[in-house]
Write a structure and sequence with these properties.
With 202 residues, this protein is of the alpha+beta class. It is 42% helix and 19% strand.
């Protein structure tokens, strides 16, 4: 691994933690810029993929029932992407979340897929019941900074691939589905790293 940051320098964005030389803090720092940019970039690319596949969807769609049960209805939020008629004629609320598999690495060790699986389960616990109650399908779309996708996200993209394959005669026409999302994740991670690099005096 290539060291990127001076060890123990304060993060220039959040100013709450110290940077480590290999960027562990940089890729999971939740302060802007970078964290929200990464989420929105992946959302925008996913929405573009759906459009290219001919799937009807709306970005940042108000649905009037998505909220954290502990926060109450005063914290209503839109669906990241609302996919129309996705399953059994019901619309699907796609909710994205990006996490770093490096969080807590020093304390608990690394287990492949553990962090995104936990993030996916957390999203389901928060929103699935409300979606079902309001005749919608809930699709958690969890990804990590290494580019791994949680099982529900993989299933969602595989179905999008099937739609693309059925709409195109080109054998490899569906390959852009996973590659587009993967590239967007890495571009978002790069933005977080660059935003925290030390200034270079010329």
């Amino acid at each position: 691994m290539i060291p990127l940051f001076p060890a123990d320098d304060p993060c220039p964005v959040c100013r709450k933690c110290c940077l480590d030389s290999f960027g562990e803090h940089a890729v999971h720092c939740k302060e802007l810029p970078g964290f929200k940019y990464r989420h929105n970039l992946v959302r925008d690319v996913l929405f573009d993929v759906l459009k290219r596949a001919g799937i009807s969807a709306k970005k940042e769609a108000p649905v009037n029932f998505l909220t954290d049960p502990l926060e109450g209805r005063s914290m209503l939020r839109p669906a990241d992407i609302l996919v129309f008629g996705w399953e059994g004629g019901k619309h699907a609320c796609v909710d994205l979340t990006g996490v770093s598999p490096l969080v807590g690495l020093r304390d608990h060790g690394f287990v492949a897929g553990q962090v995104i699986t936990k993030a996916e389960a957390g999203k389901v616990a928060k929103h699935e019941k409300a979606c079902i109650k309001n005749q919608h399908v809930f699709v958690p779309f969890a990804f990590d900074t290494f580019g791994a996708l949680a099982p529900d996200a993989v299933r969602f993209l595989k179905r999008v691939q099937q739609v693309v394959s059925s709409n195109t005669a080109h054998v490899k026409g569906h390959n852009f589905v996973f590659s587009s999302v993967g590239f967007a994740i890495q571009k978002g991670v790069a933005a977080q790293l660059v935003a925290r690099l030390p200034a270079i005096s010329l």
